[in-house]
Write a structure and sequence with these properties.
It contains nine helices and eleven strands. Helix 1 runs antiparallel to helix 9 (285-307), helix 2 (87-102) packs antiparallel against helix 3 and helix 2 packs across helix 4 (154-164). The chain has two domains: 1-77 and 235-322, Beta-Lactamase, CATH 3.30.450; 79-201, DD-peptidase/beta-lactamase superfamily (Beta-lactamase). It is an alpha+beta fold.
Length: 322
């Protein structure tokens, strides 16, 4: 075992039917971390790798302990299509522009800016916007953001992209060093996708984006709190499937043919963590959904148990007593 405060790095190569899958584990110990939690962490990584082995498709995972910085990475630098998970970046830019507006920068979008629904803005996959009255219904940018998160409304998303500027979303990502994460088309722009302009990211970069948001490196505390309140809106997704309902999951799933993703932060009391799971080349898309749910469930069990235990593994607080 390496000394406290040092980083232990292990790379395991798993051979699957002639294909080599790289699995990385990076461990950063806090001064209070003991060997017991390391053993439990090892079990978690083994469980995730087993989920990967059983998936008929590809999978990338990034998990970050927001308490001590310990990270699990598997195929974390592979570029995956994001589908609706890219909407996290759009939401982040909306809140950045709100802060810039509060600071007196002209021409920036504000959360309270009003929008009147127009027929020309409606596209497929708009569960709320399609039911509103064009020319009459007025909503705020924050309302649009809530539609975008809660039901992944594509029309609301495209209106926000127009109001924020696609180039500004990408500038935010570049400023955070996320050069593989790109918003390159609007929602439901099939022609752009066919031309290769896909919205993409990697598990590591999406994890890094969430860390920057959580650490208030994008916007101030008040706006960060509201950002996660919106992102934490209840929604159909896989990360929360095996997690108790009273634990907040601020996440955004995404799906395309052969692709299933879910990304976010699970606010486990005393032990919040970032989780990013991306899958592609799925033979059965339902298997991708199940893989995401299994990985998230295993991660929750680890963080919940460590958050309720002493450094020696004794449980000192019962679940639900936070």
């Amino acid at each position: 075992m390496m000394a406290m405060g040092r980083i232990a790095f292990a790379v395991a190569c798993i051979v699957l039917g002639g294909m080599v899958v790289s699995a990385q584990t990076t461990e950063k110990q806090s001064p209070s971390a003991g060997t017991q939690s390391e053993l439990l962490w090892g079990k978690l990584t083994g469980d995730i790798q087993q989920v990967d082995r059983g998936l008929d498709g590809t999978m990338g995972v990034a998990i970050l302990d927001l308490t001590d910085g310990r990270v699990f990475l598997q195929n974390a630098d592979e570029v995956f299509a994001q589908a609706s998970s890219i909407k996290v970046a759009i939401l982040a830019e909306l809140y950045r522009q709100e802060q810039q507006s509060e600071q007196g920068v002209p021409g920036k979008a504000k959360l309270r800016d009003l929008y009147t629904v127009e027929v020309k803005d409606l596209v497929d996959g708009s569960a709320i916007m399609a039911g509103l009255t064009p020319g009459v219904t007025r909503v705020t940018n924050r309302d649009l953001a809530t539609f975008m998160v809660a039901v992944s409304d594509n029309s609301a998303t495209n209106v926000l992209i127009d109001r924020l500027g696609m180039q500004n979303v990408n500038a935010l990502l570049d400023s955070l060093g996320l050069h593989q994460t790109k918003l390159q088309r609007k929602m439901m722009d099939v022609k752009a996708a066919q031309e290769g302009r896909e919205n993409v990211s990697t598990p590591r970069e999406m994890m890094t984006l969430f860390r920057a948001l959580y650490e208030q490196k994008v916007v101030n505390k008040a706006l960060t709190d509201d950002f996660f309140k919106v992102l934490g809106t209840s929604k159909a997704s896989d990360i929360p499937r095996y997690i108790p309902e009273d634990v907040v999951c601020a996440n955004k799933p995404g799906e395309l043919a052969g692709v299933r993703n879910d990304v976010g932060i699970v606010f486990v009391p005393k032990r919040p963590f970032v989780i990013v799971v991306m899958t592609a080349y799925l033979k059965r898309e339902r298997d991708g959904d199940d893989a995401i749910a299994k990985v998230a469930g295993e991660a929750y069990e680890y963080f919940d148990r460590v958050g309720r235990s002493s450094e020696y593994g004794r449980i000192v607080s019962e679940r639900g007593s936070h």
